[in-house]
Amino acid sequence: MASVLEIQNLQVSYRSREGILSSALAGVSFDLMPGEIIGVLGESGSGKSTLAVSLVRLLPRNGEIIRGAVHFEGQDLLRATPDELQQIRGRCISLIFQEPSLALHPTLRAGEQVRQVLAAHSAPGKSALNERTRQVFAQLFPEDADRISRSYPHQLSGGQRQRVLIAQAIACGPSVVIADEPTASLDSATQMELLAVFRTLRERMGLAMIFITHNPALLSGFADRVLVLYGGQVVECGPAATVLASPRHPYTKALFQSIPAIFEERGSGRKTKLPVILGDSARSSLPRGGCPFEPRCTERMSVCREREPSLVNLSASHEVSCFKYES
Ligand SMILES: Nc1ncnc2c1ncn2[C@@H]1O[C@H](COP(=O)(O)OP(=O)(O)OP(=O)(O)O)[C@@H](O)[C@H]1O
Ligand SMILES: [Mg+2]
């Protein structure tokens, strides 16, 4: 089966005020299959959001794509013109961000916000636009679509606001949704409800998703595959059931050992610090030459300081970047 999105050797840096480039993504490659949910895990600073925005070229002004390719249906998005990108965003690939209250316009009714997205990407008549808006609301709010559609954002709960953002994201029938910590500000029951919404959309629309989170617990029973980022690189990637049950990279193991701490903080809306792997995972602060995780690794060997490991296949679908598995 052909992939819907193919990311090859994506390298992204940010330029400081002084003009110095520091790397945030250092060669990320993976494929997303139609209807597949990939969960992207990693601590703060590991490059998750940089990955999300790079894929649709929405980096801040000081962000630069240094190298790589992102193919969507055969077209390299990194080389697409602004007009082509405008066509692709929303209609083919949509982005959902963490904070629903910031992403919605405070003085527009929810229905109008979805209608505007539809109108921006297609030019149907007024009645077709209203009908499509109604359908989208019916899909996301089967119980009270009309009321939610007429509400202003402040009249909605956090979970309802996030559903309005999902409505915007799916309104134009994209084949890929990239969701950057879309449930992070919600309590755990609402988080679970939203995951169920995403799964339903996947079943109904064949939607593929890149679902970014720092919480591995959310991916169990939800993601098909898990991709673990550390210092802007993929350190492990494989079937979710395999990676979540028996992680192989020492970083993935450490990340999962910290789950109880994450559970304690769930619902507080706060980002969790990981107690077992203290330190900074941002690319720019890591040592060069050896394995980026070496200073924090409990299983380090002498080779880990000497050169960088590359991804090795543990099976046809499970890759890990660690010398322990190199033959
Ligand atoms: N606008 C920016 N300017 C300069 N550096 C940036 C900018 N945005 C991100 N970075 C740096 O790029 C690296 C990756 O950041 P990114 O926001 O992608 O991480 P993240 O995994 O999404 O973290 P979090 O879990 O906190 O959202 C970090 O070192 C960060 O400091
Ligand atoms: Mg982020």
Give the tags.
single chain, 327 residues, alpha/beta, Rossmann fold, eight-stranded mixed sheet, four-stranded antiparallel sheet, 12 helices, globular, binds adenosine-5'-triphosphate, binds magnesium ion
Can you say what the CATH homologous superfamily is?
A: P-loop containing nucleotide triphosphate hydrolases
Choose one word for the global shape. globular
Measured as a percent range, the helix fraction is 25-40%
Ligands present: adenosine-5'-triphosphate, magnesium ion
If you compute it from the alpha carbons, what radius of gyration comes out, rounded to the nearest whole angstrom? 20 Å
User: Stretches where pLDDT falls below 50 for ≥5 residues?
Assistant: 260-276
Structural class: alpha/beta
Portion of residues in beta strands equals: 15-25%
The helix count comes to: 12
- The CA-CA distance between the termini, in Å, is 31 Å
Summarize the structure.
The protein is built from twelve helices and twelve strands. The chain has helices spanning 48-55, 82-88, 100-103, 110-121, 126-140, 145-150, 158-170, 188-205, 240-245, 250-257, 259-265, 303-306, and strands at residues 5-15, 21-32, 37-41, 63-72, 75-76, 93-96, 176-180, 208-213, 225-230, 233-239, 312-315, 318-320. The protein has a single domain (5-92, 174-325), classed as Rossmann fold.
